[in-house]
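User: Working on a comparison across species. This one is ABC transporter ATP-binding protein from Microbacterium caowuchunii. Can you predict its structure so I can line it up against the others?
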Amino acid sequence: MIEVDHASKSFRSRRAAGEVHAVIDANLTAAPGEFIAIVGESGSGKSTLARMLLGLIEPTGGAIRIDGVDITRMNTAQRKAFRRTVQAVLQDPSGSLNPRKTVGRTIGEIVRLHEMAKGRTAVYQKVAEVLDLVGLGPAEDFVHRYPQELSGGQRQRVLIARAIVLDPQIIVADEAVSALDASVKAGVLRLMRGLTERLGVGYVFITHDLPVVKKVADRVYVMKSGEIVETGPTDQIFADPQHPYTQSLLASELTLETLP
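Assistant: Here's the predicted structure for ABC transporter ATP-binding protein from Microbacterium caowuchunii:
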């Protein structure tokens, strides 16, 4: 389980004296098998919180723990295990995939680095297995392709495959479907939700897309100006929002009929 315990993050301001408070006193938990969403407008602090969850930046206050261990105080072995346990799927698959590496090499290198399999045949079988899990099968149709030879939805599925090949417990997905067309988005969301049911992986899903949240999330955290202003089960948040900011977000909600 990931636990965010009164975590804050401030940055020095280049335009004015003082600091910019990106995240303020945030509390959050995420567990395997649970699909939680963090919602809010651009600049609300969602992505900064995501980067802290991934250990990419350290909080300036409070703590972030995984199974009770502060991620800023891990030893080498603990940090390696953390990198496998918590994975990321980001918004731009084109920028996250090396255009000079095939799909097979992109995933295979991760398998070898973390010693998930040894030998060319075993590595290929592991790559083929995970490609099939994300709907990119048969593997021989995709392992030799480069990112630019794939559609946007296929590239995003490769990113998901690269994440789940390490058998993570939690995936932090930052605007992971926002760049996709509606029909493609629906398919990727079905895949992500299905992996929760099949593999028990949990998600921290960062988005501003409320119709998506309503369809896939179990629990919602609402952020405004760096603060989590409301949290609760998805049905409760959408049926009876308590905070004025949540109410204003829902008042501007659009209906996305193409989602399952």
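For your comparison, note: The first strand starts at residue 2 and ends at 12.

User: Helpful, thanks.
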